[in-house]
């Protein structure tokens, strides 16, 4: 039995290993009749609608130029992502888009693409790996987004009062958000005072716990800036639990459906919202420019936009409820 | 005769798994059958010959290739071959589409316009080439040549078959230990976390004690061995819990899974550890013995060893005996506790090896590695025909199970199956394998 199995495997493998040699020699003229090709994308996860929107926008935009898109998801596993990149190389894609599962571990995968001469673009999450060449990185302008959040707080509080930040400083994009927030408050010369930044891990339950502590410590708190929607919703829950709804203004970040609904209900004052579809579109447009031989910038930032209750009431996506 | 029938049936059951693998390979070969383009020197010779025959000596030709070793090879060989045929090679562009565009813009305005472009297939597919007549009307008459295509499935390309082996090595190696554990009637859920722990410990040791990015090969080997040993100890600890304290393996190793994952996060501080020499990728990405990837060699050696252990040694017999009937084994003098301790320790050790391979493949270690891998490992074992009830199973069956899973994943990526659907397909395959296992059992009782 074992022999039969080994025999089959050996036969199959050797057949394949011999391939790649041989083939007809000669030349072929490529005509301009069929511009197009294949683009591969490997996103961080398909369980988060943010990345699904990026992938969908990439697929639609690429179709306009005659390109088809292979969508894969790393599901947070850098080894799986590397395999997806290898599969893209086997399929000879014209370009690939990655949202790295790990900014460092993505290095070997990108280097393998570099060696094959296939251009790599990153969307939303940047690669920090040394020696791995990325043509262009397309992401939200988190710093300006932080500034917009500060503008919303100033507007809501009339330029004075105490504000707390629910932070998640382990993530590069969040560091930029809080930096923008602090810079805008400082430069605007408003009388708003930041009483501190507390870690909320970017999750609803952690933010809920930490927000309760903040509310206990600061009875005169007037506002909270939470670095993403789950944190903002956790803060809202804490405020409601402590019966201080209406007295404290919450500004979030992201514009996830749940966050937008909370804005419509008046629980969150406003969000600088991100545009994953725009990230996807711009990434494809950048790839097209690159493949046509134009010089493309190493980084493209997509601005956020402030989204208020009035916007939520007009938003067709929220009409259902 | 009464003995022959079950033997034939068993033969068919094992043969069936190989058949599934062959069928899958055949299906994906058919589904990925498409035009291929040669690269490198051979392709350059072919294309130069054709261009020479068609355009004659003295023609101005521009050679274009993307970055990368193989493309460079093509460009150099093509330029040399064209010159040999008396063609006028006006330039060689090695780089990205922008470099080509700059060159074309310069040449479009000058009198020494090329009459033909010889390009690698990759470069010929740059959009710039596809829209050349619109962008550069003065170059509209330029003819673009690239290597002639031939038909061959993507799936059976050498690079793809190596990628399949590369994809499965971590899971296949750990599945050896898991097969042994499952044959004794146990289960080990901690292997995924042990991958992370091993990757973190090995890279952490390299960073802290072996000189970080300047570490020597010897230092790295020591660090990796220490990490493997640590995982072996964790595995042995699970074994002690199962034998000495009679904790059900599912619960004992579930606890170990949490402990190992937590330890990995604590040791790494939640960050990936990347301050290691680039040469750490020798095991995971390197080749030796004439181009055979080290991962494949590792897999072959470990599987050969395990196959001999399970079929030709007393210890192997003991492992089957413990899984078949613990009481009977004990009464016949099998040291049941030591056997169980041994299989969990081996499983831990191999998970440690898997972690080192992964750290090597990714040139870094992070506590997020190995997420859910225990399930893929168990799936490989079960698809390979090992019964979760214990007492039955084959090491080589597991290897085939691992390859079935790898081929499905690879094939679905090559044929562009959506990622949500991939999960469903994989789940269905595992379910099918277990069903087959149940049917086999029902028939044999």
Q: Give the structural class of chain A.
A: alpha/beta
* Overall outline of chain B: elongated
Instruction: Fill in the CATH topology of the largest domain in chain A.
Output: Rossmann fold
- What's the assembly state of these chains? heterodimer
Termini gap of chain A? 63 Å
Distance between the termini of chain B: 17 Å
Write the SSE topology.
The complex is a heterodimer of chains A (321) and B (445).
Chain A: H1 2-18, E1 27-29, E2 37-43, H2 49-64, E3 67-73, H3 78-90, E4 95-98, H4 107-116, E5 120-123, E6 136-140, H5 142-157, E7 160-167, H6 172-188, E8 191-199, H7 204-217, E9 221-226, H8 229-241, E10 249-251, H9 257-264, E11 271-273, H10 276-291, E12 299-302, E13 305-307, H11 309-314
Parallel strand pairs in A: 2-3, 2-4, 4-5, 5-6, 6-12, 7-8, 7-9, 9-10
Antiparallel strand pairs in A: 11-13
Helix pairs in contact in A: 2-10, 3-4, 5-6, 7-8
Chain B: H1 4-31, E1 33-36, H2 40-55, E2 60-65, H3 69-84, E3 88-94, H4 97-109, E4 116-119, H5 121-124, H6 127-130, H7 132-135, E5 143-147, E6 150-153, H8 158-183, H9 191-209, H10 217-244, H11 249-268, H12 282-285, E7 287-288, E8 292-293, H13 294-312, H14 314-324, H15 326-331, H16 336-362, H17 373-383, H18 395-414, H19 419-444
Parallel strand pairs in B: 2-3, 2-4, 4-5
Antiparallel strand pairs in B: 1-6, 7-8
Helix pairs in contact in B: 1-18, 2-3, 8-13, 8-16, 8-17, 8-18, 9-10, 9-11, 9-16, 10-11, 10-16, 13-14, 14-16, 17-18, 17-19, 18-19
Give the tags.
A: 321 residues; alpha/beta; Rossmann fold; 2 domains; 4-stranded parallel β-sheet; 21% strand; elongated; disordered N terminus; B: 445 residues; ABC transporter involved in vitamin B12 uptake, BtuC; two-stranded antiparallel ribbon; 8 strands
